[in-house]
Amino acid sequence: MHCELVIPGLFAAPAARRLPAAEMLLARGRCTSGPSQSLEAWLCDAFGLEDAPLAAGALTLLAAGGEPGGDCWTRADPVHLRLMRDRLVLVPPAALRIGRLEAVALCEALNAHFGERLSMQVIDEHRWVARLPSPIEVAMQAPIALSGCDVATGLPPNPASPGHQLLNEAQMVLHTLPVNESRESRGEPPINSVWLWGAGSAPAVAAPPWQSVSAAEPLALGLARAAGVRARSAAASAEAWLERLPDDGRHLALVDLLRVPLALAESGEYQDELARLEADWFAPLLARLRQGRVGMVTIHVPDGAECVAYETIRGDLRRFWRRPKALAHYA
Question: Of the N and C termini of the chain, which has fewer Cβ atoms inside 10 Å?
Fold first, then answer.
């Protein structure tokens, strides 16, 4: 069995403690590299989309069991825009503690205003999608990638475009809603905008090299389903993941524990998640590799200084001259 992990953010900050299993797999593995890229870009390449825009809305709906058909869908994620002295800064959904009932109420209000121009659906508290009557230009980056950034850096350049107009209208609708008044009374930031990104129709997807894809990220699950590959919900650990897999084949797990604490500058949470990765993923996989119960382990880190992949087989573990190094070495 060939087990592959993709772990965005693994080399983004030094680990506060040594991670022996991770360091062993990286040091003894065989590295290939390319230009650094976001997780979304890595997924596009992995599923053969090449330079095609990522249809995040349609793929998110597909991952949730919906049928995007040939319609144009966009992600329309709830965000807070914070006014600074000379710019608007984006606060992503992960920082907003949005309840399910709040999400439904906000989408119902937006649907009542827009009708068929922007038909909203709640996928979960942090991920909303909307059907568009025709393609329009929207942002390409997810809110998590723009956390704390000037929103102008992520928007299409033409302020008179249909996408800008939809955003302006949505902000006016959201401004006076009781849900946001209640949030402000509790000291929580209002949901004062949606972030339109990743518009398009469901793509034709080439078959990837994996027999299954495990993830919580709907883009990965949507791409797997579009390709006819077994899509599995995220596992809590390597042991739980391996229990669901056959004894052979090539399988991918997206272990996306680090992007949120990185985006929200939560250094303590980031270090806790690194320790969790070591205990729940790297150590069990290394043990199985040593026992010969796994044939190869590959660790993909797309967003470091380079996009890298470390492939390790059992025989590589005998390369004692390749001494393990702290994660800071790979930053």
Answer: C
